[in-house]
Design a protein that fits this description.
11 strands, 205 residues, three-stranded antiparallel beta sheet, alpha+beta, single chain, eight-stranded mixed beta sheet
Amino acid sequence: MRDDARRFGWPKVLYRAVMGKCERFLQLYRISSRALAVDATFEPTVADVRIATEQELRVAVQEMPKQLTMEFVDGAMARGDACLAAFLDGRMVAFSWRSYSLAPHTHGIWVRFNPSYRYGYKSFTLPEYRGRHLLDLRRGDPYCRSRGAERTIGFIASHNLESLQRSARISNVFIGYAGYLRLFGRFWFFRTRRVRQTGFEFFVR
């Protein structure tokens, strides 16, 4: 904890400890957004980063069965979602899904948002490739713009300090909070005003 405090400061570290105790019944997320790049110049990378084909996803299901199933892939593609992936020597080593309408979250909860936004979800990198920044998520921006999106929309748990730090590095801008309480077998959803303007919300489908 002292190491984390030197990195993030004691207030944030103590907040994370408290929220970790509450997450069984309370989820609070920071919502962020950024404009999708029109014609960006990206740093060189050793990986081939692009939208994965259906055949490549079927291969990935066999190689990463704990992370991808054909049921998930078929459902995502039926909704029009796309998978931005990083390949090394033809092998998928990292991926992140893009949605343009609605997407699953957890515990039967889904998210939806205005069609001018692109939402990213279900990201994963093989353990042996983590820390190398192979999957620059901005490389998918031109494709997302071709689908009619103009901005991103996404959320990170308010006590996930490492992910919040990474999000800030790619110029994501904080716009508000959203989340839910889970009490008496029901979900109680909430969101702040600026988040409501984007159409972003959690809901039970």
